[in-house]
Amino acid sequence: MMKAFNSDAVIAIAGAPMTAELDGQPLSLWTFHFVKSGSVLKLGSIQGAGCRAYLAVQGGFDVPDYLGSKSTFTLGQFGGHGGRVLRVGDVMHLTCQNPINPISENIPLAILPEYKNAWEIGVLYGPHGAPDFFTESDIDMFFSTDWEVHYNSNRTGVRLIGPKPEWARKDGGEAGLHPSNIHDNAYAIGTVDFTGDMPVILGPDGPSLGGFVCPATIVHAELWKIGQLKPGDTIRFIRLTQEDAYRKEEAQDQQVNTLKEVNVTNISLPSITSTPLLKSISESTSQIAVTYRQAGDKNLLIEYGPLMLDLNLRFRVHALMQWLEGQAIPGVIDLTPGIRSLQVHYDSRRLPVGQLMAILEKAEKELPSIEDMEVPTRIVYLPLSWDDKATQLAIEKYMQSVRKDAPWCPSNIEFIRRINGLKNIEQVKDILFNASYLTLGLGDVYLGAPVATPVDPRHRLVTTKYNPARTWTPENAVGIGGAYMCVYGMEGPGGYQFVGRTIQMWNRWRQTNDFTDEKPWLLRFFDQIRFYPVSAEELLKIITLMT
């Protein structure tokens, strides 16, 4: 890759070792370089271990903000420079046109990251573990295995090759017919997600919500390692404590601020019988049972009630979310509700987990009764192209590249019919088009995509999810997983059984009555979705008019 500079600049290249030249002269990494207007930077390939290198330009690139960020989400096709990768001839404008003198210190070799082919990555156990979802031997296996990075890995997720769990359950019930299936909850970046029997480290472009168990979450100070994993590398997960994670982050912050080596002391390894549960509150006549699970050192997962589909539990989650929003607590970054859970993303520097737990326990004493709650709802009619050709193509690709003998192939709809004991596919179709789906979560998989369940239990089609998950799903695909319906807001991986396609859930650029500034997603919590049938050609015309 070659880049020509049209103005003076100051740059630095860091990350995995790679070849770089400025005007034909070798360029060293991990230090700054003055670049004159007209100079040409040539970037070569990675040399040795590691997967990515990074180019920094003083002042940054002058690109518009999208949802408060200048970063690019290429899968979603928004943000950064046109929402896409760079192409030949692109011109990137710099924010800083008059370079100032950078710091003159060289970075000590001792604090540079070490790139390997055999990695150790620090994690916190949880949010899910033994004996609820995994056996104790499963957890022992997880932490003692050298997992191999699968070739089909990227910023969405790093798939891992290794042994299969024994599982503590026969299935996930209404959440899905594989023991890895759970009622959808929020995911933390860096969580290890078992999509069926295959673990996947969810990356920065991964889904925000989903229905699979996660036995471990990478701590904040170790997240950089995800970007350096490449196919064939091995990973050993090292179990840490909250205190260990804090010390690692504190040392990392000091190194960045001082450019001096800082030792991380007193890293401890807890016993193998430790639990991801921080606290539980038992059910009583005036209290719904609550479980608090650690999801790394920056997220806390709060679960209500038993492992079952109960709309009252979702309303309790909503009450907690509204209570926390009303408190405006310093250190709370965002809140993501699931079916029977709420994930609190927090800054542990400002809000230690112990202080957060005290706030959450206080909330339980002040939440309103579910019987006294009211939530707004709309009825949203969506066109559906039944058994759309794009979903058929996705199934074909899955059979070719992932699993050709899957029992849900070559027809997901036939599989749904068989699993639910229906006489024919027409019965599946009738149930789906007569159902009113209540939106319980948004961002399931990606981009404001809903996870919804029929208000009438008679319309609930229960099925398993793909095992392992697909690597490609067409945009706007509609699927069934467990007792839930999901619409895929963009292309990407997925595990729900296809029934067809609908319109987009996210409008990237155009402003309409339904897609407005700062809310480019279509649906809201508790919307009721009803489908009506259209042909593939009619659907395409509708999408064209909307975009």
Please describe what this structure looks like:
- By secondary structure, the protein is of the alpha+beta class.
- It folds into 3 domains: 1-106, Jelly Rolls (Sandwich), CATH 2.60.120; 118-269 and 276-372, Cyclophilin (Beta Barrel), CATH 2.40.100; 379-546, Cyclophilin, CATH 2.40.100.10.
- The chain is 18% helix and 28% strand.
- It is built from 8 helices and 30 strands.
- The protein has helices spanning 136-144, 242-258, 311-327, 353-366, 389-401, 412-419, 425-434, 536-546, and strands spanning 2-4, 9-15, 18-22, 25-26, 32-35, 40-46, 53-57, 118-125, 147-149, 157-161, 181-186, 191-195, 198-202, 209-212, 216-218, 234-240, 277-281, 290-294, 299-304, 332-337, 341-346, 379-386, 437-442, 450-454, 470-473, 477-481, 484-487, 492-494, 497-501, 528-534.
- A 7-stranded mixed barrel has the order 8-15-12-13-10-9-16. A 7-stranded mixed beta barrel has the order 22-29-26-27-24-23-30, surrounded by 4 helices.
- A hairpin with a 4-residue loop joins β18 (290-294) and β19 (299-304).
- The longest helix is centred in the middle third of the chain and has 17 residues, at 242-258.
- The radius of gyration is 24 Å and the shape is globular.
- The model has no long low-confidence stretch (mean pLDDT 92).
Please sum up the structure shown:
This protein has 8 helices and 30 strands. The chain has 547 residues and is of the alpha+beta class.
Show unreliable segments: none
Number of domains: 3
Strand order of the largest sheet: 8-15-12-13-10-9-16
What is the name of the CATH topology of the largest domain?
Answer: Cyclophilin
Tell me the major beta sheet: 7 strands, mixed, barrel
Helical percentage:
10-25%
What's the gyration radius in Å?
24 Å
Q: What is the C-level CATH assignment of the largest domain?
A: Mainly Beta
As a percent range, the share of strand residues is: 25-35%
